[in-house]
Amino acid sequence: MDVLELKRKAERYGQGHLFRFFDSLSPAGRENLLRQVVSLDFDMVGRLAGEFMRGANPAEPAEEIEEADIIRLPRTEEDMQRDRKARAVGEEALRAGRAAVFLVAGGQGTRLGFDGPKGEFEIGPVTKRSLFRIHAEKIAAIRRRYRCALPWGIMTSEANDARTRKYFENNGFFGLPADSVRFCVQESLPAVDFHGRIVLDAPDHIHMSPNGHGGSLKAMYASGILEWFASLGADTIYYFQVDNVLLRIADPTFIGHHILGGADMSLKVLAKKDPYEKVGVYALKGGKPAVIEYSDLPAKLAEARNPDGSLKYWAGSIAIHLLDASFVRRLNESGFALPYHKAEKAVPFVDDTGRTVKPREKNALKFETFVFDALPLARRVICVETRRWDDFSPVKNATGLDSVETARRDMIELYSRWLEAAGAKIPRDESGRAINPVEISPLISLEGENLEPWRGREIGPMTVI
Ligand code: UTP
Description:
CATH class of the largest domain: Alpha Beta
Number of domains: 2
Bound molecules: uridine 5'-triphosphate
Distance between the termini: 59 Å
CATH architecture of the largest domain: Alpha-Beta Complex
Helix content: 25-40%
CATH superfamily of the largest domain: Spore Coat Polysaccharide Biosynthesis Protein SpsA, Chain A
Strand order of the largest sheet: 4-3-2-10-14-11-19
Strand content: 15-25%
Shape: globular
């Protein structure tokens, strides 16, 4: 590495400050920094920083959108038959080993403020099962039910990769064969301050952040995980995010609709609680299927209503997708690029004395791609409505909305409903909430089945099933 040349290059791009502590660094520190500088794409960082500082938004606010076709929740006997047929097709695909699962767990979980990969967070309302364990037990149960391989790919990021792998090892892969789980690391990008300067978070280290969950489409391919899925005969990939405790992994009805519809990419949506719920909306933009971020949806569209008073753009995306393996391959082989979105964050930085400062205020921009931006690139998209209490409760914050508290409450409510349907008695308060925390292992019941032994019994506090 020619240090002088690198220095000059950085200066040419207005990033000469990256070398401001260089002369006082140890040989190892110099090597660290140089390794990072060599791999930087100065052109791209400069372009993104420039665009965002000028206020550009590559995801332009959606002025013109139209309603898209959505498979609604069943209301009629005909709808139920439609869903039964889809389920049968999905179950057949599972039995035939056509499904794989892919978890994105590379995020930094800043809102939760948990020190470590979010998947380690112990969310179980009674057992304190971690998010990773809950997902793993669901996968184990599906493999057992359908006697299928259901290979599991997991995307981490530089910051949490080693710790995530260690966590799986220390927990014996939660009973799954270690070779049925593969990890890959997503790409990272440097954060820049509000003047477009790349942030150093230590004298010898550039602050890098993962490139968003959209990075999964490349990481899955570049790491060989897609090939691994293919070698096992799996062509239908269930994509999910680490923080949704309720999601029904590899839901056969969803898989069936996706296959019957011949889709490249599918998504699940639910009815938004109100016009401003912070979820992206599924609609047609420029005639193509798209998820429009809540921040890019003008108020007049968010609030638009049908003659019967219902929201016109009601369909909130909950980041559950199915991807056809050939679609992911085609994207990668055609050199696709998803648009970058910016996020303003509080990022650690070094002050003039070389000390690391952790600011409370936002001081930098990060750049991320979103997986749903692949929807307009798909030849065919199928969108299926689901029920909130069945499929969606994300752990985003420590308290308040979409928090640890609401996720535990939603788990207790779901398990209580299942038990009630099986004939158990659930003590409830005046507002109808289940009083006693209860938790059911996915290894016992995935969808409310196998709970007959609880018929006629009252569910006491802290029940573990
Ligand atoms: P979020 O967008 O909620 O981000 O991620 P986050 O990092 O978990 O939390 P905050 O915003 O810092 O509080 C949704 C899902 O996408 C994954 C996350 O791990 C989570 O499963 N993700 C996000 C990645 O895998 N990589 C990323 O770069 C960003």
